[in-house]
Amino acid sequence: MIQAIIDATDPEHPVEQFANPPYPAANTHGRQRTMAQPTTRKTPGARHGGRILADALVAQGIDHVFEVPGESFLDTLDGLYDQGKTLKLVTCRFEAGAVNMAEAYGKLKGCPAAAMVTRGPGACHGSIGVHVAFQDSTPMLLFVGQIPHEDTGRDAFQEVDYRQMFAPLAKWVTQIDHTHRIPEVVAHAVDVATSGRPGPVVIALSEEMQKVAAEVPDLPRANTSFAFPDPAALREMRAMLAKAKKPVAVVGGSCWTVEGRAALKRFLTANTIPVTVGFRRQAHYDGTLDNFAGDLGVGSDPQLIGKIKEADLILAIGSRLGDAVTQGYTLLDVAGTIPIIQVSPDGGEIGRVFRTALGIVSDLNIFALAAADLEPVKPTWAAWTRELRSLREAQRAVPNYQGTLNLGTVMRELETLLTPDAIVTTDAGNFAADVNPDSLEVLKDARIEPAIDPIEDFVANKRAGNCEYFASAMTMMLRSQGIPAAGKAAMKTLSAYSSALRRMRNDSVLRCIASVCCTTCSTLSAVTRA
Q1: For 30-72, how does the pLDDT look when each residue is reduced to its tens digit (9 = 90+)?
Q2: Spatial CB neighbours of 28, under 8 Å, sequence gap ≥ 6
Q3: Three-state SS letters, 279-290
Q4: Do β-strands 200-206 and 172-176 pair in parallel, antiparallel, or remain unpaired?
Q5: For the chain, is the Cβ count within 10 Å smaller at the N or the C terminus?
Q6: pLDDT higher than threshold 70 for residue 26
Q7: What is the helix (H) or strand (E) element at residue 482, kind and residue range?
Q8: Where do runs of H (alpha helix) occur along 182-281?
Q9: What would the pLDDT profile of 301-319 be if each residue is shown by its tens digit?
């Protein structure tokens, strides 16, 4: 495949060879592949703005909408109801939850979902998920109900200029004030969200615009090919790899497909390159493979960090090499002392912080397919790969310490209970680092961090904010030990909390313990019912 493209760059080969390129078609392995089949029908007659918006989403292949109902987009809700057989509407109780659900959908599927929130406080709550989508390069649409546009600038109730509010958080922010422009704006929003470096788009919906009827056609998806890697750059990458002694791959990015990840695995294993994954990118690579070295992010193995500094070539495939991956921008030299090959679908992200020796602009899945067809180099770093893997295996060992709950043991038990395609979520904060799995899809590679006993930690440090820590730890313990043992374990834990209660007299702490006990009882009840 690659040889054919390289040959086609030779003057002796006719340009016509590119009429049928040897790469798979972009729409087969690109991000559009997983989206719902878009409709291109015209809807005759007048429709109100809310129905036009719902039809525009269907025409663009959007099939999921997560929302918290609000009075500022009631007509749009009517339109979504009319499209109930095509659009799955998920009603939530909190805007941050709705937008994070849309972000998670886009992260898992590689195509955008839509979220809808009401104006003012709803938009503020939803901004959390928008920020996550922007930093994680997740395609997503957020629709925000807005005041009537005729009242703009009058300091109307819950009036916010969303173009200014979301400008640092989204790829594009706009507002629809005229009904006939709905199909145009929605179509462009999907194009922006899914092109280049994917990300969120925010669209404010003027309240009265949704009520106005108009005759306007639906617009189909744009059939746009993705960026292909330059054959000359692929040749240079292979040459640089052949000269390396201690290469390390850092895998990141978003919108990977099954085919793309399989091709990435073939390329990296064929060349025996040690592989790390970036912050919140654990699902991109199988952690059970012999060339997997660990994750670069929060709570990374200090020994792995030290070894990365010894590398003589960094192959950043999709990774932006942000602050979490580079440990606060200290892992690499900004001037590029360690040669960096960076692959990104957006040229603006290449060399943004760390100067690169070679930048390759390409869709990540197409790059992986191309790289997998390159002839493997003859690696001289087999011992280097084994050394990094051994560090990984050592870090996975369950720590032996005194206490009521060993989270390392819990995670090992989870490995035996969960299927390889299970999805694990954790809360944010330092306490979540103790149960941070290293792969969302390969649970056999769950990473274990040294932990401390939550009860003793609670008593010693009076951490009144750790209710969620206890609750999540208790949930895992109950599920891992089974129903019969769960009841006994729960009573033992509640007894320990009671002992802590007797030792402490601070009212806020007492309320915290009571809250934890109630949460634990609820968890036990839910597990028992399951």
Answers
A1: 444 445 555 555 555 899 999 999 999 999 999 999 999 998 9
A2: none
A3: CCCHHHCCCCCC
A4: parallel
A5: C
A6: no
A7: helix 467-503
A8: 182-194, 231-243, 258-270
A9: 889 999 999 999 999 999 9
The alpha carbon dihedral of 514, 516, 519, 521 has a sign of negative
Q: What values do phi and psi take at 344, rounded to 5?
A: -155, 145
Contact assessment for residue 184 and residue 176, using Cβ atoms and an 8 Å cutoff: no
Q: Is 18:9 a contact under the CB 8 Å cutoff? A: no
Buried b / exposed e over 473-511, threshold 16 CB at 10 Å, is: bbbbbbbbbeeeebeebbeebbebbeebeeebeeeebee
Closest CA to 13 of 22, 23, 5: 5
> What are the start-end ranges of the E strands in 118-271?
140-146, 172-176, 200-206, 213-214, 247-251
Dump strand ranges (E) for 43-181: 47-48, 64-67, 88-91, 114-117, 140-146, 172-176
The most confident of the ranges 45-49, 334-338, 368-372 is 368-372
Answer whether 34-214 and 231-395 agree in fold. yes
Cα-based distances in Å from 464 to 357, 501, 507: 49, 12, 10
Q: What are phi and psi of 106, to 5 degrees?
A: -65, -35
Would you kindly state where each structural domain of the chain is located, as residue ranges?
34-214, 231-395, 407-529
Q: Which contiguous run of DSSP H or E holds residue 384?
A: helix 382-395
Q: What digits encode the pLDDT tens for the residues 282-303? A: 889 998 899 999 999 888 888 9
Residues 273, 44: Cα–Cα separation, whole Å: 57
What DSSP line would sit under 412-480, residue for residue? HHHHHHS-TT------SSGGGGGG--S-SS-GGG--------HHHHHHHH--TT-HHHHHHHHHHHHHH
Chain center to CA of 182: 28
Q: In the chain, what is the greatest distance between 2 CA atoms, to the nearest angstrom?
A: 87
What pTM was estimated for this model as a whole? 0.73
Question: In this model, does residue 458 exceed pLDDT 70?
Answer: no
Cα 397–399–400 angle (5° rounding)?
130
Terminus-to-terminus CA distance in the chain, angstroms? 51
**Which parts of 59-163 are beta strand (E)?**
64-67, 88-91, 114-117, 140-146
Q: Six-digit token pair at 129?
A: 């998920």
Q: Tokens for 207?
A: 């309240």
Cβ atoms of 436 and 300 closer than 8 Å: no
Residue type at position 80? L
Q: Count other Cβ atoms within 10 Å, centred on residue 403.
A: 13
CATH 3.40.50.1220 fits 231-395, yes or no: yes
Nearest to 407 by CA among 434, 384, 378, 382: 434
How far apart are alpha carbons 524 and 369 in whole angstroms? 47
